């Protein structure tokens, strides 16, 4: 299938972003190469085992509420889905390839918080990000299109800061802060209310999130950086 037909009718800005170079990894998160975002997210490549590095940021305010975003309708994968604060990829250049204390991933998180939510870098200092663990997951795009999907080793990053949000409407449709109970209600009633939730966010919520949330004051005690939780 040609790029023209794959991207027919899609948002030009989002199509352009598909040229970004993601980091290819093996199942143990060792870098083995790089490929465009488009190449990484094509189901035909995912089904052959192509795997790339990603991150998921969970940003909490000082009241302990979690910032959620709803992905923009323009997004090529998982449009209109509610998800954690920010989800994206470190890119294949030295600044974000640096694996020392996951600093490359943290730099990517800082970059994308600015791009998607307008959060200034000084409001989310690199030293305030807590890298907790990694998950490996696979998911087909929703709505299913037999073209796109996700297959990622996803670094989970926590940060607690009060920030100023100025959304990029091409990335984010809406946002809200939620308490634990409000998130539970949202997830429990999502299907009946026609609310879409990203599959990686569901996995993290169902398997990890609430115990971590209860330990925000000493979140480093929850870190498990040697493990890749294989959720496929």
TrEMBL record:
Pathway participation: Isoprenoid biosynthesis; dimethylallyl diphosphate biosynthesis; dimethylallyl diphosphate from isopentenyl diphosphate: step 1/1
SUPFAM superfamilies from the UniProt entry: Nudix
EC number(s) given by UniProt: 5.3.3.2
Protein name, as recorded: isopentenyl-diphosphate Delta-isomerase
GO biological process, one term: isopentenyl diphosphate biosynthetic process
Domain Nudix hydrolase: 50-203
The keyword Transferase is assigned to this record: no
One cellular component term from this protein's GO annotations in UniProt: cytoplasm
Lineage of the species this protein comes from: Eukaryota, Metazoa, Spiralia, Lophotrochozoa, Mollusca
Keyword DNA damage listed: no
Catalytic activity of the protein: isopentenyl diphosphate = dimethylallyl diphosphate
Function: Catalyzes the 1,3-allylic rearrangement of the homoallylic substrate isopentenyl (IPP) to its highly electrophilic allylic isomer, dimethylallyl diphosphate (DMAPP).
Family to which the UniProt record says this protein belongs: Belongs to the IPP isomerase type 1 family.
Enzyme class: isomerase
UniProt GO MF annotations: isopentenyl-diphosphate delta-isomerase activity; metal ion binding
Gene3D superfamilies in the record: Nucleoside Triphosphate Pyrophosphohydrolase
Cofactor(s) listed in the protein's UniProt record: Mg(2+)
InterPro entries membership: IsopentenylPP_isomerase_typ1, NUDIX_hydrolase-like_dom_sf, NUDIX_hydrolase_dom
Keywords for the protein's UniProt record, in alphabetical order: Cholesterol biosynthesis, Cholesterol metabolism, Isomerase, Isoprene biosynthesis, Lipid biosynthesis, Lipid metabolism, Magnesium, Metal-binding, Steroid biosynthesis, Steroid metabolism, Sterol biosynthesis, Sterol metabolism
Organism (species): Candidula unifasciata
